[in-house]
Fold these 2 entries.
Entry 1:
Amino acid sequence: MNTALKVDEHNSDHIIAGAISGFVTRFTCQPLDVIKIRFQLQIEPITNHHCSKYRSVTQAFFLILKEEGIFALWKGHVPAQMLSIVYGMGQFYSYHMFIKAFDNFLLLNEWKYSTKFIAGSGAGIVATIVSFPFDTMRTRLVAQSSNYQVYKGIFHFCSSILRHESPKILFNGLLPTLLQIIPHSGFQFAFYGLFNDIYKRYCNETDTSITNSMVSGSAAGLLAKTIVYPFDLSRKRLQIQGFENGRKGFGAFFHCTGFVDCLKTTFKREGGKGLFKGLIPSQLKAAATTALHFTVYEQSLVLMKTIRLHISEK
């Protein structure tokens, strides 16, 4: 984080910067997320198989354009934006507070990256719990076919859940999400800190530049996502249970009764590769989103410090 400006940052800066980061990242990378979710929910192989609807990132991209139009690549974008903004606010603010708390224990300075991992894991838990209903909403809106729309929008989704299902549905898949997010968020912050320091060391930088944030963020996102990917896949499949009508035209429907059953059934029916279905668009998205996430966050903090410094000098 840039420390050249001699102005104290406020705790609220991290909330605002996190919200800005979440918004920009989501808008830019939503098409990759749509393709990734479509891959994750497809039981048939992601290959040139005659029964497979989606066969590659490029083929899926143009097929969605052809069948559903360009706006389908931003399907579920409003709840996704809500998810990203709330998640970004919760994640960066809680991470900042955890790090501040750890600063009181001098012994932890000897385990710098371990501390970042723990703080990042805790931040991921907080952010996931407060934003999870938006994730379920986003997944179902993206998952439904344009020809068999169960939900017409956010308000219709909420009323349908309350009338026909249960608010508990909004937290379906929370367990695998938390199991995923604890190491994922931890690795993101730890790897980002590691690569950030390595970049500074070899480029003789004292502050975090935009290039440093982009390079360190993309590498951290790629590694962290690959490590925890099977948990992400099971989360998406759990979130569409009971949603058979909305999946007409996408092939066979995946049934499971829980997190462990989801992993076992996926492995039994689709093999080890099935647990990593949609990994490539997910890796592309993870590299891009994490790079943007950290870069926009860091630069937003710098901007707010600059504005505060300019005001204080008047």
Entry 2:
Amino acid sequence: MATEEPEMNSNSCKREEDNAEENNQEIVGLESYIKHPLQNRWSLWFFKNDKTKTWQANLRLISKFDTVEDFWALYNHIQLSSNLMSGCDYSLFKDGIEPMWEDERNKRGGRWLITLNKHQRRYDLDRFWLETLLCLIGEAFDDHSDDVCGAVVNVRTKGDKIAVWTADYENRDAVTHIGRVYKERLGIPVNMTIGYQSHADTATKSGSTTKNKFVV
């Protein structure tokens, strides 16, 4: 004699489906509130060249962040570098380091410097600066990321500049590795070089240019 298959209760099926939906909604809802932490906490600074004030009085801390989501919220809220007035800077530094040569973490260091011509403001400045920021917060320089202090973009009439600052210009391995990775990330052609200058040389230069300690 054939046995009948047990009859499924339609109400119990619906309850199970409802429970599953509720559980899924809970999980998705929770995921959306979980932020992705960065390895370091970062501070974004803004400098406006008001000649009636001292240099330090013109430097202002905008915000600090330590998650991917908070970085993008901040980046999407502020003006693009290409829209800033001439004489203004943005600086992104690890929390606790101020964007000045005199800071204890900076004074023995230097910078990889990218100099842009006037035409590059429209085509390259914002792209290069964003890539620089992503290199910093994403710890793109492998084991040598600890040597990175921060980065600065200078908006100037004669030509804009972007620089990545490192902690110790005598740490050749770290400095050259950072320079090679940075050049590659910006997509700078192999036949073009970028230079690294120590802050001590920049502070005491006698001419308009500072001698490069390294080039890549």
